[in-house]
């Protein structure tokens, strides 16, 4: 555990099992706080990394009023960005298929915004990974959506699932960032707190 963090009780405000797994991998002691339903809409003037940063701050805002002085809260948001279109979680299976067709045979960006909040400071940063998918057949997309039901995943895919194994042919940046938390960068930022 980082010495400078021992004065804080670290909280991960997230309902995502992937984020819990990733933060545990850092070897940091923390407690999970369930996130209330957050309105994930954002001003349409925002672009690229401004979007997940805005939403990660909104997630933190839900906790700020009740935060104790020794608490440090981590919140995050992941989006998939392709051709200036933001792909969040799909509305239904048809939407999931549409997104996967859009991502097939090309590169897109996965951006995670992270917000570290304490009573007297807030640090926010974003990390981007470029992911390239091989061409996905109709049959592969259909099998993945029916079997894995990626309704809780931005862009309708989990790189850690079957589709990541058979479909991802290139990547620039952090793999963990695609899964929902850029842990190496988070570690660096926590050291500065
Ligand atoms: C692109 C991609 C996303 N994801 C997941 C990470 C996030 O959990 C989810 C994006 O949705 P988010 O809204 O970022 O997070 P969440 O609602 O799951 O969790 P929280 O309670 O913290 O708001 O998609 C993967 O697991 N693998 C992937 O390859």
TrEMBL record:
Keywords: Cytoplasm, Hydrolase, Nucleotide metabolism
EC number: 3.6.1.9
Cofactor names: a divalent metal cation
Catalytic activity: dTTP + H2O = dTMP + diphosphate + H(+); UTP + H2O = UMP + diphosphate + H(+); N(7)-methyl-GTP + H2O = N(7)-methyl-GMP + diphosphate + H(+)
Molecular functions (GO terms): nucleoside triphosphate diphosphatase activity
A GO-annotated cellular component: cytoplasm
Superkingdom per UniProt: Bacteria
The protein's enzyme class: hydrolase
Catalytic machinery residues: 77
Residues annotated as site: Important for substrate specificity: 18, 78, 160
Annotated localization: Cytoplasm
Gene Ontology BP, a term: nucleotide metabolic process
CDD domains: Maf
Family: Belongs to the Maf family. YhdE subfamily.
General function of this protein: Nucleoside triphosphate pyrophosphatase that hydrolyzes dTTP and UTP. May have a dual role in cell division arrest and in preventing the incorporation of modified nucleotides into cellular nucleic acids. Nucleoside triphosphate pyrophosphatase that hydrolyzes 7-methyl-GTP (m(7)GTP). May have a dual role in cell division arrest and in preventing the incorporation of modified nucleotides into cellular nucleic acids.
Name of the protein this chain belongs to: dTTP/UTP pyrophosphatase
């Amino acid at each position: 555990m980082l010495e400078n963090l021992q004065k804080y009780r670290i909280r991960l405000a997230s309902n995502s099992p992937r984020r819990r797994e990733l933060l545990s991998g850092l070897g940091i002691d923390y407690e999970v706080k369930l996130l209330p339903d957050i309105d994930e809409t954002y001003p349409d003037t925002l672009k690229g990394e401004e979007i997940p940063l805005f939403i990660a701050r909104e997630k933190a805002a839900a906790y700020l009023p009740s935060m104790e002085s020794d608490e440090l809260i981590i919140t995050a948001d992941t989006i998939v960005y392709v051709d200036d279109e933001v792909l969040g979680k799909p509305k239904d299976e048809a939407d999931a298929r549409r997104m996967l067709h859009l991502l097939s045979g090309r590169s897109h960006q996965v951006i995670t915004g992270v917000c570290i909040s304490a009573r007297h400071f807030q640090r926010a940063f974003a990390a981007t990974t470029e992911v390239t998918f091989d061409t996905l057949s109709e049959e592969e997309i259909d099998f993945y959506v029916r079997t894995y039901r990626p309704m809780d995943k931005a862009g309708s895919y989990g790189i850690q699932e079957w589709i990541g194994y058979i479909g991802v042919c290139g990547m620039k940046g952090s793999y963990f960032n695609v899964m929902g938390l850029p842990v190496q960068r988070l570690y660096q930022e926590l050291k500065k707190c």
